[in-house]
Amino acid sequence: MDESPLATKMTTTTTTTQSPNIQNNPLSRKLKKILETRLDNDKEMIDVLKTVSTFFTENNIRSRRSLRGEIERRILVINEQFVDAFSPMIKDLENIHYDVGEMSNCCKDMMLRLNTTKGQTQELITKTSSLQDEETKVELQSQVADNFIDKFQLKPPELKLLRAAKDGNLHPDFFQVLQKVQQIHTDVKVLLRTNHKTAGLEIMEQMALQQEAAFERLYRWNQSQCRGMTSQTLDITDMQQHAMKALQSRLVLFTYCLDEYATARRGTIVQGFIDALTRGGAVTHEYRPIELHAHDPVRYTGDILAWLHQAVASEKENLLQLLHECEKTTQEKENMEKCIGEIFEGIINPFRVRVEQVLVAEPGTLILYKLTNLLKFYHRIISDIIGGTGTCSLVETLDETHLLCNKLFFTSLQLLASKLLDKVELPPRDLSPPRTLSETLKLLKEIFDTHDTSIVRIHDRKDVLLQVMSHLIDPLLQMCTVSASQLRPADMACYVINCIHSIKFALSLYEFTDERIEMLSAQIEAHTDTLVNEQAADLLNNGGIGNIYKLILQYGGNDQTEPLSTKYGLDRTTIVAGFQQFEEVALSPDMLQQVTLLASATLKEVVTARSRDLVAEAYATVYRAFFNPNNRYEPCNAKTPEQIRLLLC
123: number of CA atoms within 13 Å, CB side? Predict the structure, then answer.
């Protein structure tokens, strides 16, 4: 192995120098081939050499000579082992081959038999296939027929539910069957648009008959149920609700059932009303008989209306529960309103008679007003409970009694006003408001107090109060004016101011009176001006300059050409004497008796202050005229207007 490169080089050199005969030598060719072999690239050779190296341990001549035989011996051993290993497999393969042959023979035999059987049973197979197809078709037709029957016919148990039972009761599943009949009657219209019109007409006629019979039975049952609803408290079942819902599609039967219900409940309500009037809560002792309070018109009427309100609310709740499953339509609301009206129709006349008896007894203006508010409140609240268009007979009765009471109330006010003007009292000596005015204002206050505690809506309250004021305030003012017509101006002004002030004070405590108070304030202001002028004139006359002031105003115009000292009554002696007398009066001015009789301290102060201002202005006018050089008066020691104003204050 180590000599290969050198041998290769020597061979190459020899090859180039040797003759062609030596190159064709077989031995040379083998050597050349061996020498040209590259062991690095020959993996098979490397593997062989590795195998040989396992048993070729010594490199001697003996080993090299026996190498070939050793290799052949080893090959022989390996082949024997290979043969021994594959002998069982060969036997198994032979057995498999035998079995496969047997199976092939069996398959051929079976194929032969099958071909023979197929030829013999071909007709039977064809017939069986035809029968199977026919069976499938028949099954499909049967399924279609069953579905058709289920959809457009009733089953025997369902027909039994629709028929009348011996005890007359309904089964809970009755309404489901009835709904199915209605659905069939609706769905069968589809058949009328196809080629099955005859079947569709027959089914429609059959369902129509069954439907009418079912509705007739349902109506009879529901009618008997409604007739039995006569107890004070009702327990309405689900079946009754379903029955009313089902009958809603038959308006006539639905109305008849409501009429039966209203008739049954009307008797119960009448009996309950009579018991409430005469027995009260005889069993539970919850309340005393209403008739025991007949001497008190307000409580008597209020108890009747309260019972009526409670009864209406209870009946409305019962009716809503009975019609809970029904569709909410305008027709249903009208039916409910009509039904409630029929339920309470039996107590309308007793209620009207009792209210009219209270009104005929002439309970008084204040009682009439309280009854008016009471009737108006319950009319509104009961009308809201019943709802609808307000055509219920009970609501109409409440409205009529309210209007009657309201009319009597305003008639009473008109009668009171006419009495005030028919018998006018003379003013008292102290010029205070007369007794009739105080009594009328007391009534007005009671009406206002009653109205403030009532629960009437604000808009209605304002309208009523304005009407009440117009019916009482205007006649009172007219009475005061007529009563004071024979008095002197100062007395008349004082008397009218006291009367109007009393009215104004009474109105100032309540709402919606601002406009009327402004009007009264304007009238007080007008009469205050009269009283101020009278007070000022009295002070000027008592002070001795009243006549002087009038003459100065008479002669002291813009076209004055002559001095005032030349006029009669305006000489210097008269004016100086007037100044002296007025100064004495200014030190302790006397008030008119009419001013001291004013009921309002504020008005006293206003009249006093304004009258003194007028007196001070009059004195200033006289003072300026006296000290005016054009009037040719000789000056004197008179107090200035400012000093007089301080003295008056």
Answer: 1
